[in-house]
Amino acid sequence: MLSRWLNNRNVLGLIFMLPAAALLLTFLTYPLGLGVWLGFTDAKIGRAGHWIGLENYQFLATDPVALLSLFNTVFYTVVASVFKFALGLWLAILLNEKLPFKAVLRAVVLLPWIVPTALSALAFWWMYDAQFSVISWVLVRLGLIHRYIDFLGDPWLARGSTIVANIWRGVPFVAISLLAGLQTISPSLYEAAAIDGATALQRFRYITLPLLTPIIAVVMTFSVLFTFTDFQLIYVLTRGGPLNATHLMATLAYQRAIPGGSLGEGAALSTAMVPFLLAAILFSYFGLQRRGWQQGGDK
Amino acid sequence: MKKLTRRKFLMTSAGVAAASALGHPVHAAPAGTPLRYPPETGAKLRVLRWKRFVQGDEDLWLANTRKFTDQTGIEVRIDNEGWEDVRPKAAVAANVGSGPDIILGWFDDPHQYPDKLVDLTDLADYLGSKYGGWYDVCRNYGTRQGRWISIPLGIIGNALVYRDSHLKAAGFETMPRDTGGFLKLCQALQAKGTPAGFALGKAVGDANNWAHWLVWSHGGKMVDDQGNVVINSPETWAALEYAKQLYATFIPGTLSWQDPSNNKAFLDGQISLTANGISIYYAAKNSPEAALQDMARDIQHARFPIGPVGKPTELMQITQMMLFKYSKYPNAAKSYIQFMMEAGQYNPWMEAAIGYVSQPLKAYEANPVWTADPKATPYRDGGSIMLEHGYSGPLGYSSAAVMADYVMVDMVAEAATGAKTPKEAAQRAAQRAERYYKV
Predict the structure, then answer these.
(1) Are A131 and B264 within 8 A, CB to CB?
(2) In which region does residue B277 sit, left (phi positive, over 0), alpha (psi from -120 to 50) or beta (all else)?
(3) Chain A contact present for B111, CB below 8 A
(4) Number of separate domains in chain A
């Protein structure tokens, strides 16, 4: 009986999948489910909560700080992602050209992404410091400005500064991934286009871009997810200041849930990020990936 | 290491019972500090404390702990955590019902899970009567409904730090004692190019300390005695108007300052007045650089000025020892707490902490650390002048959440920078606080 079962492909498949399923359930589904559930309770750290329905969400919808953090998060994600895409694509195309020391260059480009965020954030913290910024120091020495730039002290400057740091960190991931995509494009296509007399721009527009789209979709989805859920960079640079101008939903959720003890509210704030993340994934899935021609059909 | 045999233990326990019936302190141990609580046989303790700010603190804490182990045979393991990480750890331990026997927590931690803590009233009364009594603020932090739920260990002092020569250059002989004079001083310092700077970013310690002082000094407060939110008041508006004038004299950039920022700016000579623990002074004094040693000689400390309310209104960080009910060895833990708070251990420890930590018990004011270097003296008085951060309401989840969410700091920052009018800022703060104080 047992041996017959063990010879059954379906049963065997199920058994082989069990460990992976168990891992996923324990470490992914359970915490996620718990987080969502906590969002519907008034749990505090050190005290189990009671079911309060949508109260946390109702409060967050009227809380100016939470709404500001939502705006900040969307702004941060959109601006940083656009720049990361443009710069990443540009860098990938450059690296795809015949360059001296190509391997070394590619390794160097990856550095910002490899360095632990906490570390590079600290470097940016010094560069943006109100009193010790090396950028301000150089500009003052050159006589271009007369007082130090308040990188992290002015709400809009702080948003810009944190976004720049995020872009610096995120570009290599986009660039290297797109570079991998570029290298899968057959050179014969470019040769054919060259014979037809296509210009460089036309080659990019009609060959590179369409063939790169699936990779772009995946890479940018990941990039948007990373950016939307960014925490470390903000936590080191500003902790959400000045005047909560750089508080992202992730940092605000942490501030409320852990030091503040309002676990339920923090969980609700984190859960509120899920629809946005889902939207980003669905957009890339339907908008970018499922083109007819990619599935073998005519346009 | 001595081993406590069962027979010996029974004997001492009997002695304890007899002696406590007579109401005398008990000499349970043969030598050293007499302990009031006969430890359980085979007791072992785990203590979680915040990571030291200064090496001497940790060295002496460990040395005292070793003394305790030598005297009682109880093994004690000490774990360290970053000071901001102790809070969530303690709360989780309370919730889960297992973890370190004793945790050195912060502020109103014990009030968030009072029913998970061992009643320490007897120990607190004993220490209080032996060492000149607890300061009022320590009693407020340590007790709930008349029962002690934690033993205040110390206060991380906070005071004005300034350059004496710059103060004199600005036309002031001493630090003004009132908020009006203080504003004039800041204006004069700015005119001389040696400005003041107080953190208005997300600086857990520095920003909260001075923002609370500012609002309280003018009579504003987050909640009244019953915990009703009363921050949106004319007193708060006046405080915020004052903040606006004060902020205009600061060095640029304080809106982005975190806890270390004012230390760095002061030691670099960019600001001449700020509020901080004693760390700036020691960083300068112990520096190998001659310029910084010169600065150390120029550094002076003073209390915050007194505002229209006419009494000191300062906020500092208070740390408390909590004993959890899940502990298997509550008597051993009580003994440990008692041991660490007794003069034989507490005084050398506070001395080794060179002024970072001040006493919760009045008798320890006499510790030479406060007078050996006169510059340390202002840090002595934390317990006698500070208020609870949830002043004047009850302590608990609400007071903890409101401070952790920077409601007071955000309000002061919004009004000081002109991002909001004082009335708008106060109204917003009231809305945010009401959320947490609504039970």
Answers:
(1) yes
(2) beta
(3) no
(4) 1
